[in-house]
Write a structure and sequence with these properties.
two-stranded antiparallel sheet
């Protein structure tokens, strides 16, 4: 495993396991398999409806708590200072944990204009030692600028959609300037066209790897934290097997040219659903 050092000194595995769109009953065996393979970072959220399943897998795994890095998120309907504190307590109970390593604001939902007070609740949790680090998801530059102006704790990560067709170069540059790590969700474009891209296929053939492995390797070398998701044991193993090869500069260059600002998910300013 490779680790990144977050801006508060905490170490986080660069490769983690995501459980978005995994129902609760399937989350338990999927997370159990991921832990067996070697993952130690698990990323969930209230809205995924699977925190309890993740918690059951963690409890049964036998992996010491201090070796785990657990992330969850406050959902849009829980924005607000007191609401966020209550939502955190509920997430902690579902997970069966005493603390989480990373707590994130899931979306800014700018139409409601509550993400500042929501983040201030995260600051309180951090100051009280109930979370080891705090951050955000799906924040554009303008959301981050306001957060940096009005809050005290710089987020350790900004978790956003990122893959070779949406490389988030300007956002990544802004984050790097402020020592915020970019964390990539949907790193394989949720099984989208990038997996069939001829350039990616050719690079994969050179290394005797799959297209998915090449893309995950690109994320690691691009400096992203990355959280692929799967419920298929073979793919969970495959997605972890990315530490035994490297892409050279020309291959990284080839992938850099694939950027087309093609988003599969929702643009953050348009996501105001609660």
């Amino acid at each position: 495993m490779q680790y990144v050092t977050l801006n508060n000194g905490l170490q986080m595995p660069q490769l983690g396991f995501g459980v978005w769109q995994v129902e609760d009953a399937k989350a338990e065996p999927a997370v159990a398999k991921a832990l067996e393979v070697g993952y130690r970072s698990i990323d969930t959220a209230k809205v995924y409806g699977n925190e309890a399943g993740v918690g059951r897998a963690l409890a049964k795994s036998g992996v010491p708590r201090e070796e785990l890095f657990i992330t969850t998120k406050v959902w849009n309907s829980d924005h607000g200072y007191e609401e966020t504190l209550a939502a955190f307590d509920a997430s902690l109970e579902r997970l069966g944990l005493d603390y989480v390593d990373l707590y994130l604001v899931h979306w800014p939902t700018p139409e409601y204009d509550q993400y500042i007070e929501t983040y201030q609740a995260l600051e309180k949790l951090y100051q009280d030692g109930r979370v080891k680090a705090i951050g955000v998801c799906n924040f554009n530059v303008e959301h981050l600028e306001r957060l940096l102006d009005e809050c005290e704790v710089v987020p350790v990560v900004n978790q956003v959609e990122c893959h070779p067709y949406l490389q988030q170069k300007a956002l990544k540059q802004f984050c790097a300037k402020h020592d915020i790590h970019l964390e990539a969700y949907s790193p394989l474009m949720t099984g989208g066209a990038v997996l069939e891209d001829d350039v990616v296929h050719e690079i994969a053939n050179r290394h005797g790897k799959t297209s998915a492995q090449v893309i995950l390797r690109w994320h690691l070398q691009y400096g992203n934290i990355v959280i692929p998701k799967s419920v298929t044991p073979k793919r969970i193993e495959e997605n972890f097997a990315v530490f035994d090869f490297e892409l050279d500069v020309s291959e990284l260059d080839e992938i850099a040219k694939l950027d087309r600002n093609e988003r599969k998910g929702i643009e953050p300013n348009e996501m105001n659903y609660r």
